[in-house]
Amino acid sequence: METPYGEIPSKLAKDMRPQEMHDYLKKRYGRRTVLKGVALAGAAAAAGPIFWRRADAFAASSTTTTPQWIGYGSNPATSMWVSWSAGSAGTDPSPVPTTTSGQANSAVLQYATSLSTLNANEGQVVSADLLGQVPIPTGQPSGNVDDTYYISALLTGLTPGTTYYYKVSNNNGSSWNSGAYFTTAPSTVGNFTFCATGDEYEDSDTAEVIASILAYNPAFTIVAGDLSYASGGTATLGKEYGANASNTTQASYTPGDWDTFFSYLGESAQYIPWIVGVGNHEMEPLTVDGYAGVLTRFPDLAQSANGGSNTAENGSSITYTGSSFTWSGYTITNGNTYNTGSPVVRTFTYGNVAFIQLDGNDLSAEISENNGYTGGQQTNWLIAQLATYRNSQTVDFIVVYFHNCLYCTNSTHGSDGGIRNVWQPIFDNWNVDLVINGHVHAYERSQPLFNNAVVQQVASSGSYTNFYTEQGSVTPPSGAISATTYICAGGGGQSLYTTWYGYAGGDDGTSGDGHVTGDSNTSTFTTGTSPFLDVWKVSGTVESGTATGAPSGASGVATGGSTENDPAYNAAAPFSAWRYATWSHLAVNVTAPTTTGGQTSMQILGVDANVSPTVVMDSVTIIRDSVVQPPASTPEVSATDLLVVAGGAIVGAGAYAAHRKAQRERIFVSSRPSN
Fold first, then answer.
1. Angle, helix 18-29 to helix 204-216, in steps of 10 degrees
2. What are the phi and psi torsion angles at 235 (to 5°)?
3. Cβ-based neighbour number of residue 198 at 10 Å
4. Each residue of 79-122: pLDDT tens digit?
5. How far out from the chain centre does Cα 507 lie?
């Protein structure tokens, strides 16, 4: 098999999965040789590592290749968005697809629970729901156009815990795109894995991270913002108020980067829901506070999850007419109505874990373009969600994710005090287990923190028992603590930030290199003990009353600021537990309780994707006494699936990929998908 990056013998390629191809090419040709053509080929290269397409029964019926990606609908167990694109930033598709059914150019999707049914074209056919282009405002410099058409179909009424096979067409089924499959969330509590990363970009290193994520076969992948970097810098947004009112011009804006970005997602996003958050680079020179582009491309943001919908209070909604995009007054409904003030936040549950996506641009003291745009409503909504989840009998762990770091010892960006001052007391109050950030292009794990202080030192491969103290009124039982672990997972592919302040808790010691065996990247650490860490502080007037019901000190909106030494840094007990600048991601293994009141755990692996095979460079396990009623029989997940790290052992993804290969092949020879 000839690929743009080297040849794989046909007798091997026919049985190889993407990760195995990736590992073979890296071993034979070298890490930097493999995929180096991706950066040069641009959007026309089919899109980067799309050669990692699955060698399975879908291939025979495929006549077109175009990026496609999936995301959860309002309920991950019963609904799924399938999205794809036509044309490119500089070229309209011909003919332009339509959502009108029965036309020669109708955009349609076919799906079935049986692969044989799909291959026989006997599955259920649905018309696309959404079709439109990103509404580029007039006045942009020449070349800042986006003729790409984005198409989506929402599948509802699906069966929980079921594998569905699907394919899409832009010509009413005359020809079909390459087929794929997805699995809905189960309706019962069980073991599962999810991945997380941030700051992706489009580069060979991005492809390596995506390949590593694919090898873990997660239920879904979280991206903590900064996807394509098409914004070209800090965007000047088309706001309806303030200094940038109606200003939507930026010379460095390159919307064509989104076409390349989707090509780099390759096959992974066809099979694994990518749950994307927003970073500073999703604030593009567009309307809707700069978010019109990401909302057009990811309709699951427009229809937020967990049993509710994201709709306009004034009755308007997303309108695709090829040039317009209207949306104002955002609410999320989840039993009650919580006014979020934002179109890009969401919450959903999977198993016994609740996930809350926030927009740190609302509070960032470092990047102030969208400071205060929700008027404090996002924070009020956050409090209401946390209270709901902590009073729930269906949720054990709470994971919050957004872009900017609350705690980071890297000399680039560092910590954002504008966000920390408002949300950190709230996270403490409701005992959030894990906060995932990006922004800093590196990996860093904090020690468990409460009130800006280290509660317990947890070495790599260690664990601790977390306990919700009911807003501080209950003392944790012996051996348990009430704390939050903060992890920067910004090594998704963009260029790395390699310099750090002070000592970390155990990774770099006195040598100062934090080296991971087999990784060719070398990071430079500052080994002095002085607390030179940066934290962004708020300047200007702080608005009052913006976090009703929050703990003391948790109200206010950042209005931009400057850096100062981080007051949370303690040289004797640094909050940094483990750090390393490498292309990486998280793989989080959740083990469900088997008895009422039994233990449940969340094992968080920091995976170095810059070596082959990929390695687990750091890990921590959070344990809880469950409040969730488990099913009569909780499926067990093997030690191989969980990638349990014993001591400092390094676990390769290659063996795991082979294990999953065998599982997938069983799917393709059975008319009934296995789970």
1. 130
2. -75, 145
3. 32
4. 999 999 999 998 989 889 999 999 999 999 999 999 999 999 99
5. 26
Counts for the chain of helices (H) and strands (E), in that order: 13, 35
User: Nearest Cα to 423, choosing from 392, 402, 444, 441?
Assistant: 402
Dmax over Cα atoms in the chain, in whole Å? 70
Distance CA 258, CA 149 (A): 12
Torsion of CA 375, 377, 378, 383, to 10 degrees: 140
pTM of the model: 0.82
d(CA 645, CA 650): 7
Start-end of H helices in 449-522: none
Tokens of 389: 């989840």
Phi and psi at residue 211, to the nearest 5°: -65, -40
Beta bridge partners of 525: 500
H helix runs in 48-188, sequence order = 115-119
Across 58-86, average pLDDT: 76
Per the rule left: phi > 0, alpha: psi between -120 and 50, beta: everything else, 50 is alpha
Task: Tell how far CA 477 is from the center of its chain.
Answer: 34
Quick one: average pLDDT of 531-542? 66
Average pLDDT on 289-299 reads 86
Enumerate the β-bridge partners of residue 538. Answer: 561
Residue 373 three-state SS: coil
Q: What are the distances in angstroms from CA 560 to CA 219, 361, 364?
A: 37, 11, 7
Q: Is the dihedral of CA 517, 519, 524, 529 positive or negative?
A: negative
Contact 418, 439 (CB under 8 A): no
Amino acid at 85: S
HEC string for 148-186 = CEEEEEEECCCCCCCEEEEEEECCCCCCCECCEEEECCC
End-to-end CA distance of the chain: 31
Cβ neighbours for 128, distance < 8 A, ≥ 6 positions apart: 97, 99, 106, 107, 108, 109, 151, 152, 153
For the chain, how many residues are written? 675
Cα–Cα separations (whole angstroms), residue 586 to 92, 447, 527, 615, 637: 38, 16, 26, 11, 19
**Cα(482)–Cα(429) distance, integer angstroms:** 9
Contact 246, 648 (CB under 8 A): no
| Pairwise CA distance, residues 313 & 58, whole Å | 43
Q: Which residue has the tokens 């676990």?
A: 651
Instruction: Say if residues 49 and 210 touch (Cβ distance below 8 Å).
Output: yes
Angle at alpha carbon of residue 386, lines to 381 and 391, rounded to 5°: 130
- CA–CA dist 325, 448 (Å, integer): 43
The residue written with tokens 């492809």 in the block is: 207
Residue with tokens 């959502």: 99
Q: What is the pLDDT of residues 128-157, one digit of tens each?
A: 988 888 878 777 777 788 899 999 999 999
Which of 320, 370, 366, 312 minimizes the C-alpha distance to 340? 312
SS3 258: helix
Determine how β-strand 561-565 pairs with β-strand 534-538.
Answer: antiparallel
Q: Is the distance from CB of 81 to CB of 73 less than 8 angstroms?
A: yes
Distances (CA, A) of 462 to 4, 77, 399, 585: 42, 33, 19, 19
Question: How open is the CA angle 264-161-214, to the nearest 5 degrees?
Answer: 25
8 A C-beta contact, residue 606 and residue 616? yes
pLDDT reported for residue 24: 47
Catalogue the E-assigned strands of 459-598.
Answer: 462-466, 480-481, 485-489, 499-500, 524-525, 534-538, 561-565, 576-580, 584-591
144, 255 in Cβ contact below 8 A?
A: yes
